[in-house]
Write a structure and sequence with these properties.
By secondary structure, the protein is an all-alpha fold. It has 19 helices and no strands.
């Protein structure tokens, strides 16, 4: 395994852990700052919002900055921000430091993906991208549960120190193993946003946004949605998070083969449909460990598994600008995460935490509709282009 790719994957592991671990220590954060669970959930919201808004802008503005410097700057800001979160004297300062952590992540994540593609031979780029992406996926199965255990056994402040330590190790790896990274062609912000004018891409990104709004409405408030099962036991919470992440990791590995066998549309519709039913039943399945375990496994497998056919479809729409459209899809993921924190906090006050499944199910249903509209737009585009192709052939 190329050590340079492992370093980039470790950085993504740190970023992923930071994205997911707050949900595991949310009750402790709320208690420490004397705020509601919904308010504490905004620590995830502001982190995700910063990444979603700044990642495309930074990628364009820093196009001429050496890649290793940009990686180190992003990780440096990320380390400082998470340490500052751990030392925050009040909730307002904690929110500000979470935004700063989002800035560091916005600098690192797209740069790491682009660097992975540029440091290997063209025929190995797919493998390189999958290795780096795996760092984010594995963080759900290992990083977040470990951070949750640290918070439960000790204090949530040490969870943030743990995240900083991961990023610091990744930064040391960048210094040692990535002294030079080839510069990619500069792409302006306008060109990065231009694909949004294509209805197919717009609808596909809407699907991503709606689904991740649904998924993270549940995940951000995991500890209270499954509160009857968890009963304040950190070990049970961490164990459920491990199952969720592990199911998603395995599903990601198998989704590609399913797509090759039956196509991305069938895989995506099936997985979204299963998540919809799962969320509708959460009020009952979240009541005991025996029902919560299969619910979490199914949600993890189909929730994360749906990202692969979605990415496959988006790349198929515009293969010539695949990195750009995948970057837009990543922004849609974080915008969905941002919306989820707000939706979940509002819904808890209105319908209660045990009924969040119904709210999330409504968002999944909307994602299903957007997904079907996307496929219709793709089919219509193919029908329009078919006569032109026949005329060129003649």
């Amino acid at each position: 395994m190329d050590r340079r790719l492992l370093v980039l994957a470790l950085g993504m592991f740190a970023l992923g852990t930071d994205s997911f671990v707050v949900a595991g220590v949310l009750p402790e954060i709320a208690r420490d700052f004397n705020v509601s669970i919904g308010a504490a959930g905004q620590m995830t919201t502001i982190y995700a919002a910063t990444i979603a808004v700044l990642a495309p802008a930074i990628a364009a503005a820093a196009a001429h900055m050496p890649r290793n410097r940009l990686l180190l700057a992003g990780l440096g800001i990320f380390v400082i921000a998470n340490l500052a979160t751990a030392l925050s004297p009040n909730f307002e300062m904690a929110l500000a430091t979470r935004a700063l952590a989002g800035l560091g992540a916005a600098m690192f994540a797209p740069t790491a993906t682009g660097s992975a593609a540029s440091i290997v031979a063209p025929e190995k780029r797919g493998f390189a991208l999958s290795v780096v992406a795996t760092g984010m996926t594995v963080s759900t199965a290992l990083g977040a549960p470990i951070g949750t255990l640290i918070g439960g056994l000790g204090d949530w402040h040490w969870t943030m120190v743990f995240v900083s330590g991961l990023a610091a190790i990744a930064g040391a790896g960048v210094l040692v193993f990535l002294p030079h990274i080839p510069m990619p062609p500069a792409v302006s912000l306008g060109k990065r946003l231009a694909p949004l004018a294509d209805a197919r891409i717009g609808l596909a990104l809407t699907t991503t946004f709606l689904f991740f709004s649904a998924a993270f409405t549940i995940y951000t408030y995991f500890s209270v949605v499954f509160g009857r099962t968890i009963g304040g036991d950190t070990a049970i919470l961490a164990g459920l998070l491990v199952l969720w992440g592990a199911a998603g990791t395995v599903s990601n590995l198998l989704a590609g083969r399913l797509i090759d066998a039956i196509g991305s549309r069938k895989v995506l519709i099936t997985m979204l449909g299963m998540v919809l039913v799962n969320f509708l039943l959460l009020q009952w399945s979240g009541a005991s460990l025996w029902t919560a375990v299969p619910a979490v496994l199914l949600w993890g497998a189909c929730g994360w598994g749906s990202t692969v056919p979605q990415q496959h479809r988006i790349v198929g729409i515009a293969p010539q600008i695949a990195p750009i459209v995948l970057g837009l899809n990543n922004s849609a993921v974080f915008l969905g995460t941002t919306a989820a924190g707000i939706i979940g906090a509002t819904a808890i006050d209105i319908v209660g935490s045990q009924n969040l499944g119904f709210v999330a199910a409504g968002l999944v249903a909307a994602a299903l509709i957007a997904s079907e509209l996307t496929d219709r737009a793709i089919a219509a585009s193919r029908s329009r282009s078919a006569p032109d192709q026949r005329q060129k052939a003649a």
